[in-house]
């Protein structure tokens, strides 16, 4: 039963309820829902924004990196080893003691969102698919960051692995939202086989992104394994990395709906499960809880904060929880 519960986290139900007639080539979110997300973010951010920056090297957030900068911070007494080219001669003449000017370097914040659109994300039993929730999260984060004129980019984790160029403010947020809500055609065996490995994707991001970027990984992380951890650790050592795990409620507890058929999206293997048996549901719940705890331990070990969100939950609380610029 434990093996069955473990397998259940990667399965897609075939016979639960009546199949709905949907357009498989329609966007994951319609224009009205996307507009509601944008308006809600704007309503939450009522404070005015005063300054804008047009280049990556300048911005309105204090940088953690050393540099000369352009904004005057203070004049302090000269210390051995200071660069004499930064002497504040007026203060030196007024106080009869050598003083040096200190400047503050500022950087424009950068946000890069990775959206998992793989086979296991094409699953959902309440309200929406996990991939649709991932699109809502990405759009919410993008609109929330746009107000600070953040440079926003993204990557779609799928066979063609499209990477979006970094754009400032609203233009970057709209670019990310439009890519995130793009239609997800029906799965094929070729699609599952062509999914790029996670560690290869992370290594490419590490090489492409400016040092110190805010990176958000949105996935169910069912494909995460020990082989991916070195690449994730390297990425986290050079960037501010956070992870958002999107789960369906049935991946935490199996519902009692009688005998149902499941298909493994990776191997196309089918099996029948009697969800009416209490011991089956209990074993599934225990295995799901154990798997979730193990994943949290993996992320905690490398210093990456993991946020968990159900597919039918409201993503707006993540803005405050993640504390992105």
UniProtKB/TrEMBL annotation:
InterPro entries per the UniProt record, alphabetical: DUF58 (IPR002881)
DUF58 domain mapped to chain residues: 74-293
Pfam families noted in UniProt: DUF58
Protein name per its UniProtKB record: DUF58 domain-containing protein
Species in which this protein is naturally found: Sulfuriferula multivorans
